[in-house]
Design goal:
Elements lengths: L1 H28 L15 H7 L3 H18 L2 H14 L4 H15 L6 H23 L3 H15 L7 H12 L13 H11 L3 H11 L7 H14 L8 H17 L1 E5 L4 E5 L5 H15 L2 H20 L3 H14 L4 H5 L1 H6 L7 E4 L6
Antiparallel strand pairs: 1-2, 2-3
Helix pairs in contact: 1-4, 3-4, 4-5, 5-6, 5-7, 6-7, 6-8, 7-11, 7-12, 11-12, 12-13, 12-14, 13-14, 14-15
């Protein structure tokens, strides 16, 4: 009798896993973007009905197996397990962030081709944007992870194919925007951008009303917007600090690399400092600091003002440099920078060269 029961349990588990495999295969090839009202759960009704009280047990077993595979470095196998777990428990942000990190970082380092790497990074980004965010109701850790992929992987320089990532992102969004990268006044073009970016129109409007017009060809702009949604949509949660940190990180990078200039003759894209927004970006840091006076935000605020002083000096704007230094001293009168004086800060080495991205024989 015991053997019969055990065989029945095994058959049930195999049936459920087969159903999950079928479901996630459909999800992988489905290109529609579910909305909040449609994503109550990603598991099929049949699987939900059959699992009943075993749903938590199966999920726990899959989690344990995923952790073992993670420790063993068997990242490709984790992809399927993570899709099963997100199908069973879509409301938990931890599995989504693990899944996206595995796709964007662990899987991509195994691939020698830049275009193929970008496909997996983009897949990680879209899983968070199109599935995890609706399923977790804009959980701040999901928004933060999404912002981090945009900030560090697509908009950063650490990957061997970082230039390829940036160019592919640029190629996707440039046709959907005005020539300077701002939102188009053409209704059809604007709608096409909103659909591609996946940023809800209400948040897009709120973001630009508060922080001004942006160049949406830049992945760092998208990073700032998603991080902003993460801590504004969830103002009463205590775990919004990462979203706010990545929001500020994105703006600090935009400060130094936010202006996109295309050099037709050299077939290059130059990412240069956005000098026209220096004061506005420092204001953003000041507002963030006033919201909570978190030590991490305080450090970012102070260091950003120091870099702005140095940037003004590098750009031969001594009056603006002095004004920014006085603002720094007023905000942090007991800091080492305030105690050592303007000349000491001005004498520190500072590099403000643009990031140069070759177009590789094509025009983005």
């Amino acid at each position: 009798m015991k053997h019969v029961i055990k065989s029945w349990h095994i058959a049930l588990v195999l049936f459920l896993l087969a159903g999950l495999l079928h479901y996630t295969a459909v999800q992988h090839f489905q290109h529609t973007h579910p909305t909040d009202s449609r994503v109550e759960t990603r598991a099929t009704p049949t699987i939900n009905l059959l699992l009943g009280g075993f749903r938590g047990v199966v999920t726990d077993w899959l989690w344990i197996r995923a952790m073992i595979l993670q420790e063993q470095g068997r990242f490709v196998e984790i992809v399927q397990l993570a899709e099963w777990i997100t199908a069973l428990q879509p409301q938990f942000p931890e599995i989504w962030t693990l899944h996206a990190w595995n796709l964007a970082y662990n899987i991509t380092v195994l691939l020698p081709d830049g275009a193929e790497r970008y496909r997996w990074v983009r897949y990680a980004y879209e899983i968070l944007r199109d599935q995890a965010i609706p399923a977790t109701r804009y959980h701040p850790s999901i928004c933060a992870e999404l912002a981090w992929i945009l900030l560090h992987k697509i908009g950063g320089t650490t990957d061997d194919f970082a230039d390829t990532f940036f160019l592919k992102w640029y190629e996707t969004y440039a046709p959907l925007l005005a020539p300077d990268g701002t939102l188009s006044q053409d209704a059809a073009q604007r709608e096409a951008f909103i659909k591609e970016a996946g940023i809800p129109a209400r948040w897009l409007e709120t973001f630009e009303q508060q922080y001004g017009r942006h160049d949406w060809r830049h992945p760092l702009t998208h990073a700032a917007a998603w991080a902003y949604i993460g801590f504004i949509e969830n103002p009463h949660q205590t775990n919004t600090i990462m979203a706010e940190r990545f929001f500020l990180h994105a703006y600090r990078q935009l400060l130094f690399y936010g202006t996109i200039r295309k050099n037709e003759q050299e077939q290059e894209i130059h990412l240069e400092p956005d000098e026209g927004r220096i004061d506005a970006i420092v204001d953003i840091f000041a507002q963030a600091y006033q919201r909570g006076r978190h030590p991490l935000i305080e450090e970012m605020y102070r260091v950003t003002m120091e870099r702005c002083v140095q940037l003004h000096i590098a750009r031969n704007n001594p009056a603006k440099a002095k004004a920014m230094y006085l603002r720094l001293v007023e905000a942090f009168p007991h800091s080492r920078t305030a105690q050592q004086g303007f000349e000491a800060l001005a004498a520190l080495p500072f590099h403000s060269e643009p990031r140069i991205i070759p177009i590789h024989g094509g025009t983005p």
